[in-house]
Amino acid sequence: MKRKSICLIGFMGSGKSTLAKLLASKLLIPFFDTDAEIEKREKDSIHEIFLGRGEKVFRKIEAQVLKDIFDKNKKEVFVLATGGGTLETEVNKKIILENFKSIYLKTSFSEIKKRILEQKTYHRFLWREDSDQTLFLKRQSLYREARHIVVTDSKTPEQVADEIIKIF
Ligand code: S3P
């Protein structure tokens, strides 16, 4: 039986996109990123989609993109980076938990805050509204449904990638 593809989940700034690229290059397998795919498909930034069309529309597009990536590539082994809220949609949760080796990149809120403030060019619509951690705390139980939990605080992306490769 083939290995399961890896799906990285976790809050904004937990390193999902960086790790997906790194893992793909180390394991010599393809990677996909739902946010990048949404921007390509909609020819618009995630931020603009949130601003102009709202979260509900964004979640619909996100669910379609996830389904399409999975349907097109399910015979392959690949790495998938999701968005911080992808698991909130029930159908997405089902696809991810039933078909992937799901990995929660567990990062503390203070570390996330530091990382996001460093990424001055990437604007996350929902971040502005979460300076009091409400969303972060609310989503922990969702993320914990992942098959594996890898703590990222005080580790380099290389170290985290090597840890994931050991459980792959
Ligand atoms: C979101 C996280 C973002 C992006 C969108 C919504 C969220 O992805 O999908 O802004 O709901 O947490 P990252 O987790 O890659 O920042």
Briefly characterize the structure.
The chain is α/β, with parallel strands linked by helices. It is 56% helix and 12% strand. It has eight helices and five strands; from the N terminus they run βαβααβαβαααβα.
Report the strand count. Answer: 5
| SSE order | EHEHHEHEHHHEH
Report the average pLDDT across residues.
94
Beta-strand percent range: 5-15%
Bound molecules: shikimate-3-phosphate
Question: How many helix segments?
Answer: 8
Q: Helical residue percent?
A: 55-70%
Model regions low in confidence, pLDDT < 50 over at least 5 residues: none
Largest sheet: 5 strands, parallel
Characterize the overall form. globular
Strand order of the largest sheet: 2-3-1-4-5
Helix/strand class: alpha/beta
Give the termini separation. 14 Å
Q: What would you report as the Rg, rounded to the nearest angstrom?
A: 15 Å
Structural commentary:
- With 168 residues, the protein is an alpha/beta fold.
- It contains eight helices and five strands.
- A five-stranded parallel β-sheet has the order 2-3-1-4-5.
- The site of shikimate-3-phosphate (S3P) has 11 residues, from helix 1 and helix 6.
Secondary structure layout plus pairing:
Layout: E1 6-9, H1 16-27, E2 31-33, H2 34-42, H3 46-73, E3 79-81, H4 90-99, E4 101-106, H5 109-118, H6 125-128, H7 134-143, E5 148-151, H8 157-167
Parallel strand pairs: 1-3, 1-4, 2-3, 4-5
Helix pairs in contact: 1-8, 2-3
The structure holds shikimate-3-phosphate.
Shikimate-3-phosphate is lined by residues 12, 16-17, 35, 46, 83-85, 124-126.
